[in-house]
Amino acid sequence: MRLYLNRAVWILMLWACAWAAHAEPQVHHDLAVTLDPSAGSLSVHDRITLPAGGTPERPSHWTFLLHADLQPRLLQPDGAELHELERAEEGGVAVHRYRLILPAGQHQLELAYGGVINQRVSDADAAAGVRPDTSGYIGSDGIYLDGDSYWYPWFGGELRNFTLTVRLPQGWSAVSQGAETPLPDADGEHQAQWSEPQPQEDIYLVAARFQRYTRPGTWAEAMVYLRRPDQQLAARYLDATGHYLDLYSRLLGPYPYPKFALVENFWESGFGMPSFTLLGPQVIRLPFIIDTSYPHEILHNWWGNSVYVDYRTGNWSEGLTTYLADYLLAEQRGQGADYRRNALQQYADYVATARDFPLARFRGRHGEVSQAVGYSKGLMLFHMLRRRLGDDVFVQGLRKFYRDNRFRRAGFADLRAAFEAVSGQPLQTLFTQWVQRTGAPQLRISGVRVEPRGDGYRVRGLLEQTQDGPAYDLRVPVAVQGQGDAEAQVFQLPMHGKRLQLDLAVRSRPLRLAVDPAFDLFRRLQRGEIPPAVSQLFGADNPLFVLPSAAPAALRGGYRALAEHWADRADQIVWDDDLQALPTDRAVWVLGWNNRFRQQVEQMLGGQAPAFTDSAVTIDGATVQRSDTSVVLVARQPGNPDKAVGWIGCADPIALPGLARKVPHYGKYSYLTFQGPSPSNVLKGQWPVRNSPLQVTLVAGTEAPLRLPPRPPLTAVLKTTDKSD
Asked: 705, 236, 187, 722: which is closest to 483 by C-alpha?
């Protein structure tokens, strides 16, 4: 889903009046567009219908923005006036602001305009396939126009619907949201018409020399637009489109558009628009994308691209989409608890107290901190809501929220209203503390003991919230594994203050107690609950990079370039010869097989059992050779688990630029290996967590495994519902 933060201030100002009356102003555009890719230009005739307003006795005044290189002429109505006010810059795009005066009683007009929209890039960038992200491009390799291009008159925060007729050279195809009406080619040019009668936040126009594949479906037509023919690839995406449209239509309500299209972009991207997604040529051919990012983009057509986000109160869409796409698919594979732990680890590693902010202030992703709050905290909000209400009621709430808010802007208050309506429960406390409050609870267990009582046992102890500030209102899962029991007994304990005395009655002899063992609460994890990971290093303040003085010159230069790419300041980079010892009060990257501190890192990793020789390292049973493999390992500082130590061993300096780009994307992993100069990942994993501070062994010498009751995935509710629900 695209986010247009550069226009946010103006949007919020213009929404204020409309939202005071809970109205959604709309503009209709009837656009006739001729595109000349070789010249980088377009010409447009736009019939515009503005929202009725004001009084019929007085002229109405409007203001709009248009790309500075597009010179508008007012064609209709008679007596209307168009005045250029000033030139400005919006998101890196030069625009002109215009004042439009319409005669009394008129709210329709016609504009003609045209010009060049072709942001230039350097020859080197063009050769590498780099294209501008959001500022518009018309060229012989493809066309991309959206609202941030200001290719159509932009009146402010209004919603809009449209009809879009496009003329292009033969062999070209155009894609927009909504439905296509076939048109005959004319005068040696290809014609296409797209229309969307439902209110939209933007109008997109994408074009290239596409090979098109289509398949009718129960909910909508599946479409694939590729830049070169590939029947097998298209078939896989058509299959996936039908599957996910069916899944989410049955889970949430009917898909809101007549088609969903996978469109291959002419630069690497991952955009989700209403009724289509624009993915880069390498992205769509990655084998995992079709079952990860692709369903996420499809689901955005419910959340964000039909129920729009009221950004004044925070962006709920990314958290909910992540929960019902990325997370739900992991849950179906039996990996829900692992996914939740990784989400909480991302928050723990990247979000220091000083960087934290509430969900109500999340607008969009612009780095790891915002992702940890908006995506990780957001998805955990919906998980906790689901655990409180139960799966059936949770799904009813989602369906009501979707049904009540399609094609209008909605916020967290609308979500709360939907779930309160279907559950009959007051949810103000839950939403207030997780949406408005900065931070997260921290839990500690102490004084756990077992007392025989009658025909059973009692488990006692003290559970505390240790974060600064007031207590959170929690329902804390506490599991007790009993001797001979197939499953642990799980208690849901209301915790309204910062201290809770545990007094749990169990029948079997208790062997193990665990607090929130499946990571069902959003909270700041203790380091002992999670493995050391790459994310802990990249989330650290002021990490130190220690370069290997004894490495060959090419490797020394490569390691320095990698360190400079990751470091914020030059004084974070030192040579190993300049240090007497590694510091213990900060995160450290130790670089190189020849680094004199490598063996110290090996000792820190001793409990994880990687085995080193001078020419190889064995990790998790796999032996990799120093000569052709790059290795990344992460440990923690002895006695200071809040500080991580990472080691990178690489024999080929050509691989180091690729490592600099790729390693940050493997944040949740404790170890990585890559092969080749590209390089390609061949092994990744996490060190096991052996002694969680929130798990207590109750019988000395007993390593009782914790066996939690199985949970059905959320999609199990579909077994008792049908399409009409």
From this structure: 705
Query: Are residues 518 and 550 in contact, defined by beta-carbon separation less than 8 angstroms?
Result: no
Residue 498, sorted as left (phi over 0), alpha (psi -120 to 50) or beta, turns out to be alpha
List beta partners, residue 646.
Answer: 589, 634
Q: Would you state the structure tokens that stand for residue 55, as one six-digit string?
A: 């009084």
Coil, strand, or helix at residue 391? helix
Q: CA dihedral defined by 434, 435, 438, 444, rounded to 10 degrees?
A: 10
Beta-strand relationship, 41-49 and 108-116: antiparallel
137 residue type, one letter: Y
The Cα 387–Cα 390 span in angstroms is 5
Specify whether the backbone of 479 is left (phi greater than 0), alpha (psi in -120 to 50) or beta: beta
Question: Which alpha helices (H) appear in 203-335, and where do they start and end?
Answer: 231-252, 293-299, 317-322, 328-332
Dist CA 432 CA 441 (whole Å): 14
3-state secondary structure at position 296: helix
Q: Give the β-pairing of 73-76 and 26-36.
A: unpaired
pLDDT over threshold 60, residue 249: yes
Q: Is-contact 464 498, C-beta < 8 A?
A: yes
The model's confidence at residue 54, banded by pLDDT at 50, 70 and 90, is low
> What is the spatial distance between Cα 526 and Cα 529, in angstroms, rounded to a whole number?
6
Q: How many residues does the chain have?
A: 725
* pLDDT of amino acid 118: 82
Residue 339's H or E segment, with its range, is helix 336-350
Q: What ranges in 153-292 are assigned the alpha helix state H?
A: 231-252
**Has residue 8 got a pLDDT over 90?**
no
Under 8 Å between Cβ of 587 and 536: yes
**Count of other CB atoms within 10 angstroms of residue 158:** 18
d(CA 697, CA 513): 7
Q: Are 261 and 179 in contact (CB under 8 A)?
A: no
Separation between Cα atoms, residue 335 and residue 337, nearest integer Å: 6
Q: Is the pLDDT of residue 539 over 90?
A: yes
